[in-house]
Amino acid sequence: MNFDLTEEQRLLQKTARDFAEKEVLPRAHEIDRDHRHPAELVSRMAELGLLGVAVPEEEGGAGMDHVSYILAMEEVSRACASTGVIMSVNNSLVCDPISRFGTEAQKRQFLAPLAAGQKLGCFALSEPGAGSDAAAQTTTATRRGEEWVLSGTKNWITNGPVADVSVLFAMNDRDKGHRGITAFIVPMDTPGVSCSAPDDKLGIRGSKSCQIFLDDVRLGADAVLGEVGGGFKVAMSTLDGGRIGIAAQAVGIARAALEDALHYAAERTTFGKRIAEHQAIQQKLADMATEIDAARLLTLRAAHQKDRGERYGKAAAMAKLYAADVANRAAREGIQIFGGNGYVTEFPAERHFRDAKITEIYEGTSEIQRLVITNHLLAEIA
Ligand code: CAA
After folding, report:
1. Do 152 and 111 sit in the same domain of this protein?
2. Residue 363 among the catalytic residues
3. Which of 171, 223, 333, 369 would bridge 137 by S-S if both were Cys, CB 3.0 to 4.6 A apart?
């Protein structure tokens, strides 16, 4: 087994690390404190090719692989988890399905500007009554002559308030259950589309999410992404890839918790020596480092499988499940190492703790990841 990165992968990792350290990290505290969408960092990510990393060059992207994408995701998320998820949604949940299911015209009109970062995307699947049970869609898509008319409400839509384009799911035939769901590409300035005020969140406060309201939104037949009635498979296969991106985000948050705690432990003294010399602290740091490496390896394996055209749904769910768990444990232990300083906003430890939580929830909760993994295990013995 070869664990070496290619020259190209190393180069992108370095580019992302330099960007994260010099431009993202110095702003992370303020972005979180002010709940601010970091528009200037989104523009810089566009310049660096980070918003369409694995989109082929001929479709307007950077033409790299998914391993490169997750290496960059980890670096950006290590500096700022909010900026990380903005990047992840555009890459994994918007560019990826348009690249896989879009027509040539849809790719020209939507994918090229999204992958170049001239436009930003969001993925509108969840609804007030359809989170984990994604097939329970109540947003309707009704065919009227040549047009589709969409009505309903989408919930917790990351990038929603700042997006130009949405990959959005609606029920066109309730009797068919999940086979009656269709995916659409919806420009956010289409008449009848509106957004709620941004959600007030525990963490990733620089990542804007909201409800999207659809009030008799009229779209042409060319707005359908993939097949009519094929939307649930578009959503599920897209989330398989998205979960690798969120796993990488979780690894980045965990690394931030470890690196900050390590530096703190190397300086802070108690009982006449640096706290890093106390075994209680050493045990924590060693466990954090080991678990982060294991989470990264799972994440790399999932990305590698996707690059090789292999089935990767199980590997992606395992990576997200484990990396989210590691991020939350590392962030909790990070606060413990910082002690009282971990509990105040002057230090970043409490931000990592708040940011880590969402990785156990979005793009499928940890409970849903376990369900997906077990479904794969059962299919393997059927
Ligand atoms: N790829 C392709 N097809 C898939 C698939 C996959 N990964 N998983 C399932 N399918 C297909 C099945 O083969 C089946 O197809 P047939 O019609 O041919 O039989 C169909 O989909 C239905 O499958 P299930 O019976 O397994 O579906 P289900 O209704 O029981 O749901 C589930 C399965 C795994 C629980 C799914 O609902 C799920 O993943 N829920 C979590 C949803 C989620 O992750 N939401 C995140 C929202 S987006 C977000 O968070 C973005 C953000 O803000 C950052």
Report:
1. no
2. yes
3. 171
Q: What is the pLDDT of residue 3?
A: 86
**Which of 217, 200, 255 has its CA nearest to residue 77?**
255
pLDDT at residue 1, rounded to an integer: 76
CA of 70 to the centre of ligand 1 (A): 22
Atom 51 in ligand 1: residue holding the nearest Cα: 363
Q: pTM of the prediction?
A: 0.98
CA 17 to chain CA centroid, nearest Å: 18
- When pLDDT is cut at 50, 70 and 90, the band that residue 55 belongs to is very high
Domain residues for 11? Answer: 7-120
Query: Nearest residue CA, atom 3 of ligand 1?
Result: 233
Looking up residue 178, the CATH number of its domain turns out to be 2.40.110.10
- pLDDT digits 0-9 by tens, 227-281: 999 999 999 999 999 999 999 999 999 999 999 999 999 999 999 999 999 999 9
Centre of ligand 1 from the C-alpha of residue 236, in Å: 4
Rounded mean pLDDT of 174-196?
Answer: 98
